[in-house]
Every structure is written in C-alpha cells, then in structure tokens.
Amino acid sequence: MKNESLLSKILWGGLVVLVLIPFLFPFLWILSASFKTQAQIVAMPPVWVFTPTLENYARVFVEQDFGRFLLNSSIIAVGSTVLLFDSLVYSVFKITHDRFFCNADCQPYACWAAFNRLDYGQLF
How many CB atoms lie within 10 A of CB 90? Predict the structure, then answer.
C-alpha cells in the first residue's frame, strides 16, 4: 500500500511539473532575457548559453525614472486593494447578518456567495 501511495505521489508530481512547464517557460525566458545584451536578445537562433550582465538593470534605474513609476504603481495597487477590501467587508457583514436577506440555514452559503459575487462585481 505504501508503494502505491509513493508511486501515485511521484506520478502526480510528474504531471504537475509537465503542466507547469508551458506556463513557467515564458517567465523564465523573460528573466533570462533581462540578463542578456540587446544583441543576444534579438539573435536568431536564440542564444541559450551566455555570460549574464546587469547592464539592462543599471540602464533602467539610472537612465529612466523607474523609482517614480514603481511608487505610482504601488500607490494605485495598495489603494485599490484597500478600497476593495473595505467595501467587501462591509457588504459581506451586511449580507451575512441581515435577517431579511438570509436565515440561519443558509448563512454559510450567503458568506460564500457574497465573497464570490462582490469580488467579481468590484473588479469589473
């Protein structure tokens, strides 16, 4: 029984790795391109073995105002998350504690429905 359990875990792990490879490959490609020179990035056929360089990162932080852009994006991301969470908490509290909306039998389902419905409603 233990061998079947170990075998099934190995097979599931292999399946997970096979499924993740197509999804992770673009991210790894972009990450590797960030350490290449411009000529290596556009080379055809692609350069697989190269000497990494930090030239692109130095250019982003020195020549461009990346810090300001990062701060602006962070302010928007944190602000929208706080506003979404704030409205969601009040809405879920109202839905799950309103006797007119829901009785005690459906209260756990009301909380689930509220989170699902309001999350997508706030995003779009």
Answer: 11
Per the document, the length of the chain is: 124
Radius of gyration of the chain (CA): 25
d(CA 49, CA 40): 10
Say how many C-beta atoms besides its own lie within 10 A of residue 36's C-beta.
19
Q: Where does residue 21 rank: exposed (0-12), middle (13-18), buried (19+ CB within 10 A)?
A: exposed
Question: Which residue in this structure is represented by tokens 């692109």?
Answer: 56
pTM, to two decimals:
0.51
- Which amino acid is it at 42? V
Indicate if the pLDDT at residue 123 is higher than 50.
no
